[in-house]
Amino acid sequence: MWQDAVAENRSNPAYLVEEDGGWREVSQQEAAIAIDELAHGLLALGVKKGDSWGILARTRLEWVLLDFALAQIGAVAAPIYPSSTASEACYILEHANVVGCLVEDDEQLGKIEAARPEHVYTLETLDELRALGRRHASAHPDALDEARAEIDDDDLFTFIYTSGTTGPPKACMILNRNYYEMVGRIDQIENFFLPSDVLLLYLPLAHNFGRLNPRDPRTSAHLGELLEVIADLPSHRIESEVSAGVLLEAGILSGLVFRLGGFQPGQEVAALSEQRDMVANHIADFSLAYIATQKSR
User: Fold this and answer.
1) Total count of domains within the chain
2) In a domain, 136, yes or no
3) Each residue of 148-205: pLDDT tens digit?
4) Average pLDDT score over the chain
5) Residue 211 lies in a domain
6) Spatial distance between the Cα atoms of 69 and 148, rounded to a whole number of angstroms
7) Domain limits at 157?
């Protein structure tokens, strides 16, 4: 799906990242370059198809880019909730037998010391992996295409760890075709995603629902904290529909789809307070609808 999106040379940004009080556009091409560099960097480290890699960070651009990079070489992501305790994080790293891990900051780094894998990167050092990838791509220009060619539909894509409320978290083994089919179900609903839609991701990407929407490149995705972005809604104009990005049949409940009239990042025009309430009500209504649907199965 990502390769198809890149090949189409789409003009809409792939992501909008919250930085310095505004939203920075990340183009499809910028994201594609970063993903290829990270994928080459992983290959340079010796990471191969079937190897596991932990990600311990909040919902942010680096999370998404590394996730795609891992998928490009057939490696298996092992996401960890950023709210996890040290013992929970170490349990997942050891259970998944990871060869590396991305952590957001020193606080998260401290959580994994007891199970520190061979390769550890933080947000500050991730550029080193990209630089390594550029050197690897120069020396082995066909390596990434060769790695992609080895990936099959029935190969493992990711572990999704359960909450652990009934004991240690269980690792659900998700195949490539599982995610492809989930995204494909969206195509069965007319105008579910429109090219002008902007998706606000508010669930942790370690959550299965939160993970799904960044893998559908048909919309631009806001990567930011939910409460912070809702509080900032008066700086945006909502002219038409604000709808929850939810598809019950496929089990998607990870973000809000904003259908914005003439929206540009940083544009400051008034929005009424009841529109913020509408966003919150959508979250509650669709959450209840999802729970009810699951109970009826």
Assistant:
1) 1
2) yes
3) 999 999 999 999 998 766 778 889 899 999 888 877 776 777 776 676 777 777 778 8
4) 75
5) no
6) 11
7) 45-180
Assigned domain for 162 exists: yes
Q: Is residue 30 part of a domain?
A: no
pLDDT reading at 24 higher than 90: no
Measured in Å, how far apart are the chain's first and last C-alpha atoms?
30
Concatenating the DSSP letter of every residue in the chain gives -HHHHHHTT-SS-SEEEEETTEEEEE-HHHHHHHHHHHHHHHHHHT--TT-EEEEE--S-HHHHHHHHHHHHHT-EEEEE-TT--HHHHHHHHHHTTEEEEEESSHHHHHHTGGG--SEEEETTTHHHHHHHHHHHHHH-TTHHHHHHHT--TTSEEEEEE---TTSSPPEEEEEHHHHHHHHHHGGGSTTSS-TT-EEEE-S-TTSHHHHHGGG-TTSEEEES-HHHHHHTGGGS---S-EEEEEETTTTEEEEEEE--SS--TT------HHHHHHHHHHHHHHHHHHHHHHHH-
- The highest-confidence range among 140-149, 183-192, 241-250, by mean pLDDT, is 140-149
- Residue 60: which CATH number? 3.40.50.980
